[in-house]
Structure formats: C-alpha cells, structure tokens
C-alpha cells in the first residue's frame, strides 16, 4: 500500500495519555447517578444499569493479573476523525492488561455483529491505521440494534469467538442502543459487557462528563481552514458573497465553532432562530440588511455561515414540514392523488391542502425548494431536510429582498453570491493532535472499564483544555444521559442531544462580536491543521472548549 510522507510520519506519532492511564489504575467510585429527565421511566426500562456510580481513574492500582479474554469492537454511524485511534487505544489497552487478549472488529457496523462478519485485529493490521482518518479499518454502518433477535444473534457470535465485551463507537443513537444492549445482556445473564465511546463531528453528544465528542475538533478545523481560504479570496476579489452551509442537522455547534475561528460577517444559529421564533422572512431581512450595510462601505462581498438543520428550527417551516409529512404520508390517498397529477399542477394542489399560514410560507419558497419539500422523502415518508439546499434558498430570497431595498433607495450595491456545503470534507480527515490523543485515551479507558467488569458505561475523558497528562479518565453510566423522546410516534429512551445553549460562554461571545464582524472585514485565516511544531499551535483545543472552561 502506498502512503504519503505525512501518513508515514503520523504512523510514528505516540499519542499523549493522562497520567492515570500510563500504569496500573485504581478506580474510584463517585456518587450514584440518575437520568437527566424522566427518572421513573428510565429506571423502569433499565433496572440493571440505572443509578450506577460515576467512575474516575487514578494512578496506583494493583498490577492486573486478569485472565485472557476477547473483545469485539463496532464502528457505528457516520465517520469521524479519530475512530482508528479509539481502536488502537483499545487494542493497546487490552494487550497491556494481558498480552493474550484478542480484539475482533465487526465489519460494516452493528450489522457485522448480527450477521457474524468479523476479523481479528492483529498488531500489524492495527499499526497501519494509527493516527489516520476514516473508519476503513473495519467499516461502519447504520444498522440499529433494537430487536431482541438481533441481541440474541450477537450472543451466539460472541460465544463462538469467546468475546466477553463489546465496545460500540458511535453517537447518541448508537450509544443509546449500546445501553439497551447492556441492559438486555445483564438481564439475560449472558456475561457480555457493553461499553460506549462518544463519537460525532456534530458535537451534540456532550454533557458535564463528556466534554466533547471525538472528531468535532478535527472537522471544525478542516471547515475553518476552508472558510478562511474562501474569506481570503472574498477579500481579494471583493465581488462575491459566499453562503456556506455546514454539517450539523440537529445542533449548530459546528457553525458556532467555525464562526469563533474565522469571524464571518453572518452566522445563523438554529437554536437562536427557534428561541426567537424568527420567520423565514425575518432571517432573510436580517441578512439583507447586513449585506446592504457592507455595501454602503463599498464592500460588496462577505461570508455567511448556515447550519444544515436551520429549516427545521424555523417555527413556521417546522409546521409546514409537519403538515407536508402528514399530507404526503406513504400509502395514503393524498399521496396517490399527488403522484397522479401533472408535475406542473402539484405545487398548487399542495397549497390547497395545507393550512392558510403554511400555504403562505410555501408560496414564498423558490420553486426548486418547494419541489424538494414535496419529493425528497425518507423511508418513513418524511422530508429529507439534509437534502434541502438551504444556502441556495437563502441566496434566492436575499437577492429578491435586496431588489426591493434597491427599488426603495435603501441599497446601492451589487450582489453576486456563491454557495458551498461543507460536510463530507471533514468527516475522514487525519485527526488533529487533540483528537489523536483524546481518542487513544478513550480506547484505553474502554479497555480498563472492561478489565474491571463494567458494563453500560461510556468512556469519559475530561479536563481537556489542560495538557493531556492532566486529563481525567473514567466512566459515566449511559443511563445518566437519557430522557424519553417521541420517535416515529412512540416514546423511547434516548441520550439527550446537546443543543447550543444561548446562555453558554461560546454563544455569548459570538453575540458580543456579531455586529462588529458584520460590518468590518475582521476575518481570521486559521490555515491547515498543524501536526508538528509548538504545542500552543499543534495541541490547541476548540474555541468552544476554551470558552466553556474559561480559558
């Protein structure tokens, strides 16, 4: 296999570890936990894994004399930089407990456990993937482990391979499924432990014990480099507005972090839009006024950051989408009627079937976006919001609003816009030093949790703005993060998503600078991720973490 010079150098990088993970470990139990909400319901559903204590690792435990055991590992969901280092940290952690321990990788995600598709991960194989991006070491998948027959198939496969524990590396849904699996395996007395690791570039799997999900640091640095490059180009050419959509459907953490790193002229935060109950017209007017104000200063250029999930956070758009989902539900008479109509007549028919308020909003949308709302549906019959080209929608609507302002004598500039969507560009990047270290620590932490017989826990590494040797490793019960939410018409236990809080230090800082950045060209150009050089450059954490921890 041909590899780049950078990959050769990165293969030799030795990730930094917290002090407690460098030798024998003592586990200190903290207070017993309860779920963030719906305590009675979560306790009823998870009687065996509810209320377990927080765990903290300290130096100085007795040397391990554990008998050899085997472990399985699963990569679940979308890719995130650092996944390979979680696996290499897990591998090294298991071997340090007992050189005879074996690690099996289930191929293609959770489906590999159910279908019995796996491979043993040997030292030579793991070494080839250290400090690299991607999930190609064993592949990932989106199969959900929710049914008892799946759990039972997993037992068969684990018993065949002598596996006593499974590590599931995933986001909030994947770790919710891991907790359900841990509860079931305890209830059935299978002897199989389940441990989770927090992954998602979206940054919405976080709480007091999980300070950040892995991959967020690297992805935001990749996107910020691209945004910085675009801003340098905009400031050079001085003739384009760049509307940049950023990945993050359920929360705007990526947009907020990239704004803190690059200081664009406009940053939309979905959670703020929802809180203020802003209409689509109000958002467009807000953007148009900033563009007009910059034009007054002779600046007919700029950048606007737009979160991927914005549409669902605009109250009137959410109502419209809900009405369209009901109207065009698969298998209904309305859906059959809609499909039987000529394409040119479909949008008018839809307007006549929904409420007057929603019909008004629907009528304001550019025709292409209106069609996307009626045609692009997922297997559940719902609008595929991630496919809606929000950045193009806003460009068209802003252009129309600027024409109105020009006619009223309130705008004298020129508006030319380009659209971008940054998503896949950041999911498989070579991990930053922070993510390489953090993920390796998470893998080692998972190994120690397994070696000490724990199940239903997520690996936790905290104090992450300090140097790595001062990080605090341990475990947090997954039930502690859970609440009940309606999913597909049923109330289900899920890990509570962490949205951008408007009272948080990162958002408050953005809000304090917003007017200044809107009018001035205050761009910051972060440049590419640095792997070699001073620690102040190479090991820096996200601005989000720094502000949250008062750094």
User: Rg from C-alpha positions?
Assistant: 25 Å
CATH architecture of the largest domain: 3-Layer(aba) Sandwich
- Counted by DSSP, the helix tally is 23
Percent of residues in helices: 40-55%
Q: In the residues, how many domains can be counted? A: 2
Structural class of the helix and strand makeup? alpha/beta
**What gross morphology would you assign?**
globular
Overall strand count: 15
In what order do the strands lie side by side in the largest sheet? 1-2-13-12-7-6-3-4-5
**At the third CATH level, what is the topology name of the largest domain?**
Rossmann fold
Low-pLDDT stretches are none
What's the rounded overall pLDDT mean?
A: 95
Any overview of this molecule?
Helix content is 44%, strand content 16%. The model has no long low-confidence stretch (mean pLDDT 95). Strand 14 and strand 15 form a beta hairpin. With 551 residues, the protein is α/β, with parallel strands linked by helices. The two termini are 43 Å apart. It folds into 2 domains: 23-215 and 431-495, Rossmann fold (3-Layer(aba) Sandwich); 217-424 and 504-548, Rossmann fold. Helix 3 packs parallel to helix 20. A 9-stranded mixed β-sheet has the order 1-2-13-12-7-6-3-4-5, with helices on both faces. The chain has helices spanning 5-11, 39-45, 83-97, 110-115, 123-127, 148-161, 172-187, 216-237, 253-262, 270-275, 280-296, 310-313, 315-327, 333-340, 343-353, 356-364, 367-375, 390-407, 424-427, 433-451, 505-519, 535-538, 543-548, and strands spanning 25-32, 53-59, 70-75, 102-106, 118-120, 163-170, 193-198, 241-246, 266-267, 302-307, 417-422, 457-462, 472-477, 482-487, 490-495. It contains 23 helices and 15 strands.
């Amino acid at each position: 296999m041909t590899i780049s010079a950078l990959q050769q150098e990165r293969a030799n990088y030795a990730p930094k570890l917290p002090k407690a993970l460098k030798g024998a470990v003592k586990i200190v139990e903290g207070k017993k936990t309860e779920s963030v909400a719906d305590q009675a319901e979560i306790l009823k559903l998870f009687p065996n894994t509810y209320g377990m204590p927080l765990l903290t690792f300290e130096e100085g435990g007795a040397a391990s004399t554990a008998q050899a055991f085997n472990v399985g590992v699963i990569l679940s969901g979308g890719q995130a930089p650092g996944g390979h280092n979680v696996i290499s940290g897990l591998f090294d952690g298991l071997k340090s407990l007992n050189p005879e321990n074996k690690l099996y990788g289930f191929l293609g995600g959770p489906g590999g456990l159910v279908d019995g598709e796996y491979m043993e991960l040997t030292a030579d194989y793991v070494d080839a993937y250290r400090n690299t991006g991607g999930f190609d070491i064993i592949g990932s998948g989106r199969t959900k482990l929710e049914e008892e027959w799946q759990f039972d198939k997993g037992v068969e496969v684990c018993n065949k391979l002598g596996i006593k524990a499974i590590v599931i590396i995933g986001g909030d849904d994947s770790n919710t499924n891991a907790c359900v699996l841990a509860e079931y395996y305890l209830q059935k007395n299978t002897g199989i432990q389940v441990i989770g690791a927090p992954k998602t570039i979206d940054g919405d799997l976080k709480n007091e014990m999980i300070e950040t999900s892995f991959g967020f640091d690297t992805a935001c640095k990749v996107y910020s480099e691209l945004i910085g490059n675009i801003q340098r180009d905009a400031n050079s050419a001085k003739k384009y507005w760049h509307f940049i959509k950023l990945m993050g459907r359920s929360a705007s953490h990526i947009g907020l972090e990239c704004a803190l790193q690059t200081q664009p002229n406009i940053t939309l935060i979905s959670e703020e839009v929802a809180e203020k109950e802003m209409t689509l017209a109000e958002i467009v007017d807000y953007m148009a006024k900033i563009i007009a104000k910059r034009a007054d200063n002779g600046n007919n250029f700029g950048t606007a950051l737009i979160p991927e999930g914005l549409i669902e956070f605009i109250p009137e758009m959410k109502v419209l989408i809900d009405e369209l989902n009901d109207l065009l539900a698969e298998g209904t008479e309305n859906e059959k009627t809609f499909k039987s109509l000529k394409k040119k007549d479909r949008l008018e028919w839809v307007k006549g079937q929904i409420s007057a308020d929603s019909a008004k909003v629907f009528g304001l949308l550019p025709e292409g976006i209106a069609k996307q709302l009626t045609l692009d549906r997922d297997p559940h019959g719902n609008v595929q919001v991630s496919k809606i080209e929000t950045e193009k929608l806003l460009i068209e609507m802003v252009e129309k609003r600027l024409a109105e302002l020009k006619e009223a004598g309130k705008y004298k500039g020129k508006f030319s816009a380009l659209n971008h969507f940054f998503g896949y560009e950041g999911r498989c990047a070579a991990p930053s030093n922070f993510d390489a270290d953090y993920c390796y620590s998470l893998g080692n932490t998972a190994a120690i949790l397994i070696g000490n017989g724990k199940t239903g826990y997520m690996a936790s590494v905290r104090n992450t703005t300090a140097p790595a040797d001062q990080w605090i490793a341990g475990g947090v019960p997954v039930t502690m993060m859970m609440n009940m939410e309606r999913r597909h018409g049923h109330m289900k236990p899920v890990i509570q998503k962490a949205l951008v809080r408007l009272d948080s230090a990162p958002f408050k800082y953005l809000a304090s600078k917003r007017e200044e950045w809107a009018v001035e060209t205050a761009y910051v150009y972060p440049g590419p991720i640095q792997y070699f050089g001073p620690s102040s450059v190479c090991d820096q954490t996200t601005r989000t973490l720094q502000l949250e921890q008062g750094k």
